[in-house]
Amino acid sequence: MNASGITGTASFTRDSNDNTTILIELTNTNTDEHPANIRFNTAAEGGPIAITLEPCTRAVSTTVVTQLDDGTPIDFDKLLNLDGHVSKQESSANPDVVVAIADIGINAN
């Protein structure tokens, strides 16, 4: 997005308690901190933040997810069926500039 050249992967792993660990690994990025979120709706539609993820520092982010930001519990299966997308922002200073985005859940192809 926005000519950033940044690409990457987001991996969702279920643990023994049915929590989800989300690992994000970026390529073609610098060592700056990039905020990350799971947002509702498709990437094309955009939407409000559903889950605030740990920022990518040195191109990697790991977050254990058990609930949405509003406190609603979410397990692995519900997360895989979420109407959502992952977005990475340029920086905390420029949170409105998206540098990478991908549909997840029911929106993923």
What are the defining features of this structure?
three-stranded antiparallel beta sheet; globular; 109 residues; 1 helix; 48% strand; four-stranded antiparallel beta sheet; mainly beta; Immunoglobulin-like
Question: How would you describe this protein?
Answer:
- The chain has one helix at 76-80, and strands at 7-14, 20-27, 34-40, 49-56, 60-65, 83-89, 98-105.
- It is globular, with a radius of gyration of 13 Å.
- The two termini are 19 Å apart.
- The chain has 109 residues and is mainly beta.
- 26% of the residues are buried.
- Strand 6 (83-89) and strand 7 form a beta hairpin.
- It is built from 1 helix and 7 strands, in the order βββββαββ.
- The longest helix has 5 residues, at 76-80.
- The strands form 2 sheets. The protein has a 4-stranded antiparallel beta sheet with strand order 4-3-6-7, with no helix packed on it. A 3-stranded antiparallel beta sheet has the order 1-2-5.
- The chain has one domain: Immunoglobulin-like, CATH 2.60.40.
Distance between the termini: 19 Å
The major pleated sheet works out as: 4 strands, antiparallel
Rg, Å, rounded: 13 Å
CATH architecture type: Sandwich
What is the CATH top level name? Mainly Beta
Determine the mean pLDDT: 88
Regions with little confidence, pLDDT below 50 for 5+ residues: none
Question: Any idea of the CATH topology?
Answer: Immunoglobulin-like
Provide the spatial order of strands within the biggest beta sheet.
4-3-6-7
Helix content: under 10%
How many DSSP helices? 1
Oligomer status: single chain
Structural class: mainly beta
Shape: globular
Strand content: over 45%
How many domains? The number is 1
Succession of helices and strands: EEEEEHEE
Number of strands: 7
